[in-house]
Amino acid sequence: SRIFVLNGPNLNLLGSREPEIYGHDTLDDIAGRLEDRGRELGLEIDMRQSNHEGHLVDWLHEAQATGAVAVLLNAGAFSHTSVAIHDAIKAIAVPVIEVHLSNPAAREAFRHHSYVGMAAKGTVAGFGADSYLVALQAAAGLAGK
Ligand code: DQA
């Protein structure tokens, strides 16, 4: 069983980007931890990042077309702006779990609304890199693992 882990804009800079908010782990560090936990759960991790909205839309379609069992999605700032990503989540049957390192509800007002969260199965936010691991556990539950 395969899980897509999709990451949006600026998350390629994780580790050096505002570490007081996002921590010191890089996206590769997080991928390594997800792969280790995935191995234990019997789940294969397909981790990707793009700064381009349309890539995230294409990858959501691909998750469905290739039979992924769940998607973890940290759409970054697109969470707060993208009707296209909202519609893509609605367009597929694969469950999508929204992930954030920080807790957007405790930050600026422009982060309080999420088009992703409105369409997602659920949201994990505020636990740094651990948000991804908690979301993976939830995905395992959805996949019957
Ligand atoms: C983020 C929160 C978003 O508001 C922000 O635009 C990001 C990162 C997070 O993981 O905490 O780029 O998605």
Short description:
This protein is an alpha/beta fold.
Mean pLDDT: 98
Weakly predicted, low-confidence segments:
none
- Fraction of residues in helix: 40-55%
CATH architecture: 3-Layer(aba) Sandwich
Adjacency order of strands in the biggest sheet: 2-1-3-4-5
Biggest beta sheet summary: 5 strands, parallel
CATH class: Alpha Beta
**Class per helix and strand makeup:** alpha/beta
CATH topology: Rossmann fold
Bound molecules: 1,3,4-trihydroxy-5-OXO-cyclohexanecarboxylic acid
Q: CATH superfamily membership, which one?
A: Dehydroquinase, class II
Gap between N and C termini: 10 Å
Number of strands: 5
Domain tally: 1
The number of distinct helices, counting runs of at least 4 residues, comes to 6
Report Rg.
14 Å
Which range does the strand content fall in? 15-25%
Order of helix and strand elements from N to C terminus? EHHEHEHEHEH
Q: Overall 3D geometry?
A: globular
Structural summary, described in words:
Pathway: Metabolic intermediate biosynthesis; chorismate biosynthesis; chorismate from D-erythrose 4-phosphate and phosphoenolpyruvate: step 3/7. Catalyzes a trans-dehydration via an enolate intermediate. Keywords: Amino-acid biosynthesis, Aromatic amino acid biosynthesis, Lyase. By secondary structure, this protein is an alpha/beta fold. It has a single domain, classed as Rossmann fold, CATH 3.40.50. The protein is built from 6 helices and 5 strands; from the N terminus they run βααβαβαβαβα. α2 packs parallel to α6 and α3 packs parallel to α4. The mean pLDDT is 98.
